[in-house]
Amino acid sequence: MGFWGKIIGSTIGFAMGGPFGAMLGASLGHAADEGALRGALPGGANIAAMLGSRETVFAVSVVVLSSKLAKCDGPVKRAEIDAFKTQFRIPPESMRDVGELFDRARDSSEGFESYAQRLGESFAGEPGMLEDVLTALFRVAAADGPVNRAEMEFLGAVHARLGLEPAAWERARGGRPRPDALPPRGEEGSDPYVTLGLSRTASDETVRAAWRQLMRDHHPDSLTARGMSAELVSRATGKVAEINAAWDRIKRERGL
User: Fold this and answer.
1) Domain 180-254, what fold?
2) 65 with 116: CB under 8 angstroms?
3) Is the pLDDT at 255 greater than 90, yes or no?
């Protein structure tokens, strides 16, 4: 029995929060239900692509990347597994399938690069989600002590293949939230540019593009299609209202 199996009953936390964090668990559960996790290695990236499911690509990739990261600087430690289980919300009924894939990835000689590349390509239009993955991987790396050189090189390679901007690397490394993931605040006294993750010098076109992207990321219909719970969809409704309020204020200020 693998190391994972020895601690399979330990408590599962939920650190990432929000709709992106929820999708991690939903995707893992979906892929496990479909049996896609059981034969994912070797050649998992290609198998996921042939299935044509972004959920499967996501689920397989985050498990494999987490396992390979934990192994890159020596034997996998319990703290790293606990951190993985905390960062990625795994449904209890999917725990065994996920654990088996984690152990197979740990023991496989296959590289991690193709998984990061496939993940970046599949979710190129959702950089916020990819940044959340990178942030979670940093937390896994730091679970057993300061991030070392081997882990930093691994994370740098993942960052490059996810196609994220340099600012995303700095936020993930420092554990800082994305601008669009800041907690909702009331309209009074809040800065609408902060809500949209922009500076006041941003052009009209940039502001409009940021608003549209945030609406795509947080719209309840989109989250429902991804399998989000009713509670998370309800929370997203509040976020959408905040985004629209910020956009309306900026339009009024600029006379758009």
Assistant:
1) Helix Hairpins (1.10.287)
2) yes
3) no
Residues 6+ apart with CB under 8 A from 224: 233
d(CA 140, CA 19): 20
Q: Which two tokens stand for residue 5?
A: 């199996």
C-alpha span between 41 and 10 (Å, rounded): 25
Query: Residues 204-242: pLDDT tens digits?
Result: 888 888 888 887 777 777 666 666 556 555 666 667 777
**At CA 97, angle to CA 2 and CA 60, rounded to 5?**
105
Helices 113-122 and 54-71, axial angle in degrees (round to 10): 150
Would you say the C-alpha torsion 148, 154, 158, 161 has a positive or negative sign? positive
Q: Are 215 and 241 in contact (CB under 8 A)?
A: no
Nearest to 167 by CA among 139, 130, 193, 201: 130
Average pLDDT over every residue of 3-26 = 37
**Amino acid, res. 106:** R
Decide yes or no: CATH 1.10.3680 for domain 3-177: yes
